[in-house]
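Task: sequence design from structure.
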């Protein structure tokens, strides 16, 4: 990929940005004017040229029967529409409920689709969005724009977006521990770090057996012991666009950092390029997205699962599900489980009708899909009730309410 230009950003936290990537002092404007500017800014972020295709509308239903039956009535085939006509711009008409891009592939998914909840574009302007993580205490979402070397923050109370951290070490995955501290996987510095309450940075891990990591990618925290499990596929060291190009010194693997002693263990290298990572709701299984086919032709395009033994080891590695659909297979990237054990996987690199989020039942069956107009790199559950799915869609941030909750705190 060729860098189309990165922002020249000052090294500061919480700086307000305009839609052009420039900065203004928010204190120089009255509150009402600032609020209106933020709303206009959000609309501009999510604007894009309107495609030549028309909108597909759902059948009209009565108000009384709508809420009870809308989700089931919205069941469609996998690729649903002849052309991708969704317009997220400021002048776009509202989508007719139920949202046709939340697709029920199996009736097991119907109960999770809300008939009167649309997919919304919350922000546009990133180069490669990743690392969505919800902070319950602050009621904000943090996510990474890897090439621009920044972390962004979206506030729940008014939808305001600001530059949260710059530089970010070309961070990819982010998460929070159970003390509310942010943990980030830095491509550029090949390390996993924790941001402390006083603003300092603690390096949790940067080497394995004396050799630098490839480029840590995604992380998750276990609630019982606070251990941090993370993946190290090395994408950030394969190009300067997302980090610093350099040699991969060790095999791609999954690691565990003991929260008490700080000791590091490799829990598995039985995978080509481990990417997104999440626990099952009971924390007895670990799911990891396999994206090795990007560089190893023999690698499968799937999500793997292991049993967690004694809380510290993995056993029984196997395929959880294939990313193949209707004869085409893309990649899963960031993944999250809900409280019912379904796995919500960001998906992409196939095209219209495939790219977005794929939802898998606990047995691995694909039961639903959220279609986005671009590749989705990561997802997380958030919001006050943890029932809103946030989706990092390459150049944009999307969200949709669903009738389930995330199994993890972020």
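Answer:
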């Amino acid at each position: 990929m060729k860098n189309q230009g990165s922002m020249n950003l000052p090294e500061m936290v919480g700086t307000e940005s305009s839609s052009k990537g420039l900065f203004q002092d928010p204190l120089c404007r009255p509150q009402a004017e600032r609020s209106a500017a933020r709303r206009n800014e959000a609309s501009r972020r999510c604007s894009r040229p309107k495609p030549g295709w028309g909108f597909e509308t759902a059948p009209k239903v009565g108000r009384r029967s709508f809420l009870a039956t809308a989700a089931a009535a919205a069941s469609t085939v996998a690729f649903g529409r002849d052309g991708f006509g969704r317009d997220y711009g400021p002048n776009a008409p509202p989508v007719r409920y139920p949202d046709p891009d939340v697709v029920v592939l199996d009736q097991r998914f119907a109960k999770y689709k809300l008939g009167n909840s649309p997919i919304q574009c919350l922000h546009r302007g990133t180069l490669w969005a990743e690392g969505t993580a919800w902070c319950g205490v602050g009621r904000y979402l943090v996510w990474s724009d890897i090439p621009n070397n920044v972390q962004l923050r979206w506030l729940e109370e008014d939808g305001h977006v600001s530059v949260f951290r710059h530089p970010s070490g070309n961070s990819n995955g982010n998460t929070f521990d159970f003390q509310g501290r942010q943990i980030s996987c830095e491509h550029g510095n090949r390390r996993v770090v924790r941001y402390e309450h006083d603003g300092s940075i603690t390096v949790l891990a940067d080497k394995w057996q004396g050799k630098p990591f490839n480029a840590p990618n995604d992380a998750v925290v276990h609630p019982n012991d606070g251990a941090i499990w993370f993946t190290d596929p090395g994408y950030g060291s394969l190009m300067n666009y997302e980090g610093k190009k350099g040699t991969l010194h060790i095999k791609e693997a999954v690691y565990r950092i003991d929260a008490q002693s700080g000791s590091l263990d490799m829990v598995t290298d039985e995978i080509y390029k481990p990417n997104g990572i999440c626990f099952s709701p009971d924390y007895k299984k670990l799911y990891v997205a396999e994206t090795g086919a990007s560089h190893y032709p023999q690698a499968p395009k799937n999500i793997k699962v292991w049993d967690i033994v004694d809380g510290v080891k993995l056993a029984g590695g196997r395929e959880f599900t294939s990313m193949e659909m209707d004869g085409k297979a893309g990649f899963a990237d960031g993944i999250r489980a809900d409280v019912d054990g379904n796995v919500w996987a960001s998906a992409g690199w196939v095209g219209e009708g495939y790219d977005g989020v794929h939802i898998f039942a606990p047995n691995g069956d694909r039961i639903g899909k959220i279609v986005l107009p671009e590749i989705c790199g990561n997802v997380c559950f958030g919001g006050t009730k943890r029932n809103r799915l946030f989706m990092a869609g390459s150049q944009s941030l999307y969200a949709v309410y669903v009738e389930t909750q995330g199994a993890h705190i972020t």
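The CA atoms of residues 176 and 184 lie 9 Å apart.
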